[in-house]
Each structure stands twice: as C-alpha cells, then as structure tokens.
Amino acid sequence: MILQGKNQLTLQELLNLPPEEGDITYELVNGQAIPKIQAKFFHAKLTRVLLNLIEQSCEGKG
Q1: What pLDDT score does 53 carry?
Q2: Contact at 8 Å (CB) between 37 and 24?
Q3: Residue 2 clears pLDDT 70, i.e. is over it
Q4: What is the pLDDT of residue 4?
Q5: Measured between alpha carbons, how far is 12 from 35 in angstroms, rounded to an integer?
Q6: Staple partner for 39: which of 7, 18, 23, 43, CB 3.0–4.6 Å?
Q7: How many other C-beta atoms are found inside a 10 Å radius of the C-beta of residue 40?
C-alpha cells in the first residue's frame, strides 16, 4: 500500500501518521510513504556481521 494524496508528504507528516497494525514501517520516497520490506534472516545476520567487523576495525581510531 502506498500512502499518498494529491500532495506529496513531508517528513513531519510521515512521522505523524498513525501506527499501522502489525509490524509495518514506512520510508519516505519522493513524497510517498512506502512500506519497508522486512529483512530476511540471511540479510539481517549479514548486516550484523558487517556492523561488528566495522566496529572492530574502528576501535581506538577516534
């Protein structure tokens, strides 16, 4: 579902939208509220691994 009227949404309007049922979150793309796709298990795990590697690489580097 794309939430958009005749006018494009602003960031503040997106943030003020009432919460949807379930675990749906939206992102603002060209003035439209687009539902974000949930990360699947592999993608979420890969993201955590990459973030851990970046954090380890940055330790002690200010």
Answers
A1: 97
A2: no
A3: no
A4: 47
A5: 17
A6: 43
A7: 9
Alpha helices in 1-62 (DSSP H): 11-16, 41-58
**Type of residue found at 30:** N
CA distances from 28 to 36, 57, 61 (A): 10, 32, 34
Q: Token digits for 45? A: 């795990």
pLDDT digits (tens, 9 = 90+) for 15-58: 888 887 777 888 999 999 898 887 789 998 999 999 999 999 99
Q: Are 35 and 25 in contact (CB under 8 A)?
A: yes
pTM: 0.46
- Cα separation, 15 vs 35, in Å, equals 13
> Rounded to an integer, what distance in angstroms lies between the CA atom of residue 41 and that of residue 28?
24
Q: For the chain, how are helix, strand and coil distributed in percent, rounded to 5?
A: 40, 15, 45
